[in-house]
Design a protein that fits this description.
CATH topology of the domain at 14-124 and 156-260: Metallo-beta-lactamase, Chain A
Structural class: alpha/beta
Protein name: MBL fold metallo-hydrolase
Domain Metallo-beta-lactamase: 34-246
Distance between the termini: 56 Å
Radius of gyration: 20 Å
CATH class of the domain at 14-124 and 156-260: Alpha Beta
Number of strands: 16
Order of helices and strands: EEEEHEHEHHHEEEEEHEHHEEHEE
Largest sheet: 7 strands, mixed
Pfam families: Lactamase_B
Helix content: 25-40%
Oligomer: single chain
Shape: globular
Length: 344
Amino acid sequence: MSPEASDWSAAGCYPVAPGIHRIPLPMPNDGLRAVSVYAVESADGLALVDGGWHVPEAWDRLAAGLRAVGGDVTDVADVYVTHVHRDHYTLALELRRRVGARVHLGRGEATGLQAVRALGSNVPISSLRELARAGAAHLGDPVVEATRRESFDLSDWQDPDTWLDPGIVDLGTRRWEVVPTPGHTKGHVVLHDLDAGLMFTGDHVLPTITPSIGFELGEWALPLGQYLGSLSRLLDRPDAEMLPAHGHHGGSVHERVVALLAHHDRRLGEIVAVAGSNPDPVTGLQVAERLSWTKHGRAFYDLDAFNRMIAVCETLAHLDVLVDRGTLVAEPGASDEVATHFRG
């Protein structure tokens, strides 16, 4: 067992609560650096919350972490996945193939999984569509080139053993409530251990950053509106200690939710100011270019190609909420290939 490191992504196995350990697994060439998988003692063996990304070093790191607390990958009986992004889902299916672990995923992710299998690649075509709507189709070119070079294994995107619906999961030694929290993806769920006062928040509530919104295949359904609603509904639940997928564990879920809601309120205000200060209607790209990005306040063109795409898509998600609220007006182009303009 390792003491908690100052770097949350450092390899190790960190105690969280009685019978629960956090194991950071690597995310190659990704700015987040790692995803935290939580190993939980259950009546059937070990249950994991989130599976990790199916890369060789992740399997080795998981095995080492479990050995540090007297376990083994063969002890993993169940993997409860908060959402379908590859850093959470794909290693879960490798665990099923190699040790027979059962995989559980929110029912709202079914259409996303089907879309990934139908596409058969990592190219983010839905995000490319949104770039075109923002007048930024050209920003997708380097992303397409990079993702086409990535390996894609269809076996990493098969259906889970169980689709999770709202309600109680009984692990024998503890009971979790499955709570749908759409926004980051359509089928994201958090797992609330009411007895222990813990909540596995996945990417829905993160301690120092805001999750990307709407980065998945399929049609958008006002993802930021969904996300804000999901955040607000957590305030109606008992508070809990936060066990997130990225960043240090600990701290109040409610406190962080209030901060995230305040952040998005400020962001919406910034976007209204940009749109309102321009005498002509603006595109999503034009708004994104005038905002600062990341917690370090970086300029838009200081971001790499992938994060410029994410920034434009998140800007559109905010613009769509403002249109839905009646604060701004959208003037759609004739097709997805023609940019939408927004005005106050």
